Amino acid sequence: MYQPRRSPDDNYVTETSEVQSETELILQKHIPADPEAPVTLQKNQHLQFLARNLVQGFPSRYISQDASQPWLMYWILQSFSVLGVALDPGNKQKAIDTILAWQHPDGGFGGGPGQHPHLLPTYAAVCALAIVGRPGPGGGWDQIDREKMYKFFMSLKQRDGSFLVSHDAEVDVRGIYCLLVVAHLLDLLTPELLEGTPAFIASCQTYEGGFSSASQPYFSAEADGSTVLLDSIRPPLGEAHGGYTFCALATWIMLQPYLKLQEPAVNPPTVDYQRLMRWLVQLQGSDVELGGFRGRTNKLVDGCYSWWVGGCFALLASLGVGGGYGRDAGPGTESQDDGEWDDIDESVWNKLGLQGYILCAAQHPAGGLRDKPPKPADAYHTLYCLVGLSAAQHNVYPSPARSAKVAREWRSLPDYPNETLRKTSFLEALSWSEEEGGSHVLGGTANRVNATHPVFALTMTHTEGIMSHFYKQAIPRRK
Q: Most exposed of 244, 314, 328, 456 (fewest Cβ within 10 Å)?
């Protein structure tokens, strides 16, 4: 049996090195005895795990998640979607009614009925409605108060371009990501909303290359008693983290249409892509860690970073960084679902290795997915392991052909301001496509899951459905 090389401790044992060693010993037990034997995604067990949580309710330990009820709903519904399963009409309606009960009368969604509105549960609630909702009475989409939602967003905006996650709360790039996803899905984008945000996002990049949760603004007093934000003094707060980095990078991608419309600036905000790429690739574990990802330097691998870190590579590839950029299909293109790999893999990360970690270590025998053995499964890790598996299986990229096809169907509407920003953001959001012949599924076609939108963490179908409705546009069918 193959025995991968253990991580060195330089003959200086610490608490960190001991925990790392213990984790590697546990993971070694999950390396298949026969490396040629196929590993299976236990879809039925995972579906039963999800159905139990949705229909029967969560175990008592989830009471700590009372302020995260929209997240629990989203994690379950999107996990079903990635696995290719839809709810029946009755359970869809129950989900819609439950989600609408979280909408706050002043705009946005709270973590539960009667709770204060917050950007993070607002994202989860709107994404959940993208999955189960529909137009019309009781369908959820038309019951979202978009006007109050926008006012709620603007009430959180800070002078440095950042946003509080809730009134009297902190600034966090995760909240800004959540806000911009909702603004894209519901057609709420305006220059006023986005002003200053690119500079704030860029200021959160740390010396390692990843992003922290926020940066510290500094102001200079003026002679008239006012203050001016100093652009050159904005140190990032905290260390680079996989979750913050995904949210910051996805936000940066969403801001590109706005940036392209701005007048050329003397010192435009920039992101160091090469340093970011270097940091990301170093977060993937070695063979003894089964190719999983860690979320910070010198931390343990964790299944959820399959998405938070593994999902960053498609975003960087869309900017022309790192290779592996998808191409529009030509004649004779075939899929690689049978486990055969291209002779030349342009990707800078080990997609096969990540699939192995998820299939061998992250699956819980009783259903659901987890951080790592011997931990229990939970709804959070179930989703982010599954969408991480999706990111490793499929090459999803902004397709020029798809963008052109959607653009031909675009209709300008009267009384809709910011036409260029709306149209460009719409086209870029819906240009993401799965490369034909670009799928590489470890274990064969039975392990295949649905492709995931790299920015929104929804399926392409649900993204197109809700955006088509709110932008009032017809979207051409995919093949």
A: 328
